């Protein structure tokens, strides 16, 4: 997680009410599974064991470092299982855990929806930008426009 949201959730010395703690946990989970790279990785791993290099090819635009970090976080969250085989060179595979497999249909539905509506969304953005000027994608502009 990044930005102010993670700081609000990660303050160990701040007491949370049960509702605040629950909202924080849900937000953290949604941030992880809805992350830019996580969806593609989880979809690929839900099809069966997948190797690092296969994920590099499948997840378009991801750097090796970001793939490594995302895999580590998904494994930490219990969404991926990493298996190292004692071969030379070592063979490493990633598989989706049962909770990730439960999430799979939702991720496919979300990516299918995005594919179906990407042109309409691009057209809506262009029309908005013509009428109002482009929106700065930074966090300050989002907060300022709310």
Automatic annotation (TrEMBL):
<dbReference type="InterPro" id="IPR002577">
    <property type="entry name" value="HTH_HxlR"/>
</dbReference>
<feature type="domain" description="HTH hxlR-type">
    <location>
        <begin position="24"/>
        <end position="122"/>
    </location>
</feature>
<dbReference type="InterPro" id="IPR036388">
    <property type="entry name" value="WH-like_DNA-bd_sf"/>
</dbReference>
<dbReference type="Pfam" id="PF01638">
    <property type="entry name" value="HxlR"/>
</dbReference>
<protein>
    <submittedName>
        <fullName>Transcriptional regulator</fullName>
    </submittedName>
</protein>
<dbReference type="GO" id="GO:0003677">
    <property type="term" value="F:DNA binding"/>
</dbReference>
<dbReference type="InterPro" id="IPR036390">
    <property type="entry name" value="WH_DNA-bd_sf"/>
</dbReference>
<keyword id="KW-0805">Transcription regulation</keyword>
<keyword id="KW-0804">Transcription</keyword>
<keyword id="KW-0238">DNA-binding</keyword>
